[in-house]
Amino acid sequence: TIAALGVLNYALYLGLTATALRHLSAGMGAVLASTNPLMLALCAAWLLGERLTALKIVGLLASFAGVVWVMWRRIGPDNEPGAMALVLLAIACLVAGTLLFKRAEPRWDLLVLNGGQLLVAGLTLAVPVLLLEDLGAVRLTGSFLAAQAYLIGAVSWVGMLIWFWLLGHGDATRASAYFFLNPILGIFLGALLLGEPLQARDFAGAAVVAAGIW
To answer: How wide is the angle at C-alpha 32 spanned by C-alphas 64 and 123, nearest 5°?
Structure first.
């Protein structure tokens, strides 16, 4: 179970997403990533027996509409259809991993569960890396190491531990609704750290997303 979760949640989801984002605008990537809660809600109602009430449907659609509204002007012209399909495939892998987690109801400690997945995913991706990538092109600069440290600590450890904790303490549909926050937090962090401009529609869209999650 841990091996299957590692392949779905990390190797395929993150691997396919990283590959696709080289051929997508950040805005389009955010919109496509926000289809995760919609996909999961339909699958969870069918496979997990979670109740998909009218209020839940309205909340999910409202949050998705808020993301689209905020990100629409950030969708650039260079979005390759193949890359868009790859992101949707990556999301489907994450949804499958979420469903497997809920069906298996693993009782392991979350650190063991997450560490095992990361180990399996690393070994899985080592094969295409060694075959397809030029390892000599890697430069261990300060910015590269800082980015790696953030991805490992904040995303792979803290973020995913929170995700599995949420899944273990409630419906998958409810937990996945927080994915709508990713692009919203992204634009505000972009403004805070990179000086990117914010508009009134960004605040209005964020309010719609928050209301939908609530």
So the answer is: 130
